[in-house]
Amino acid sequence: MDTQFRRDPIAGEGGRAASAAWGPLFVLGVLMAILGLVALGSSFITSMVSVILFGALLAGTGIAEIISSFRVRKSGGPFWLYLLNGVLSTVVGIFVLMNPAAGLGALTLLLAGYFFASGLFHVVTSLMDRYPKWGWDFAYGAISIALGVIIMAQWPISAVWLVGTLVGISILMRGIALMAGSLELRRAMRSVSVSP
Fold first, then answer.
1. Domain tally for the chain?
2. Residue 181 within a domain
3. I want to staple 77 with a disulfide (CB 3.0 to 4.6 A). Which of 6, 71, 72, 89 is the partner?
4. Closest Cα partner for 67 from 56, 91, 83, 89?
5. 155: which DSSP letter?
């Protein structure tokens, strides 16, 4: 008779504690996945918000570096390096904040160049070394080169969608990873509580 009313190890107090461990992570993952989908749906707005945030962070970092350059000077450190780098970061950050469309265009070109150069590096390295499973690296490199060429060919129109799309995909993938991790944590907690 007792066994009929025995508590499930996941239910009751232990169940609440287990839910408190994995539940908030799962909810956060769902919210991030939804935010990622929204960001993908409005990629231009996401691009503009991202570039404005980038400009603000760059300007803030530059100001902090200028301030730290005077502290470094007292200790005999590289004063001019810190000062000039801080001034450059501040000027570029303010330029991006004052003209986010131009900043977005420049950031798009920078990303296109990165995809192309990174892809070229992977293709050449995989062809020259022929290490185990080099074909995957070759395919990654070929796709990166193609992506870089497509972005360059569509510039400046690609500036409208590229940054927002990349940010949206990143947020969506982070949300999916959080959901998967929380479900794995739930599975592990259940197996620990069920085992004798």
1. 1
2. yes
3. 72
4. 83
5. T
Is the entire prediction scored with pTM above 0.70?
no
Q: Are 47 and 161 in contact (CB under 8 A)?
A: yes
Quick check: 148 and 10 in contact, CB under 8 A? Answer: no
Burial of 66 (0-12, 13-18, 19+ CB in 10 A): middle
Residue 10 lies in a domain: no
Amino acid identity of residue 32, one-letter, is M
Q: Two tokens at 84?
A: 């000039």
- Residue 149 inside a domain? The answer is yes
Domain assignment present for 8 = no
- Placement of tokens 């296109």 in the chain: 112
- Greatest Cα-to-Cα distance within the chain, rounded to the nearest angstrom: 82
Q: pLDDT tens across 128-160, in order?
A: 877 777 777 788 888 888 888 888 888 777 777
Q: Taken in order 125, 127, 131, 132, is the CA torsion positive or negative?
A: positive
Query: Domain containing 39: what range?
Result: 30-189
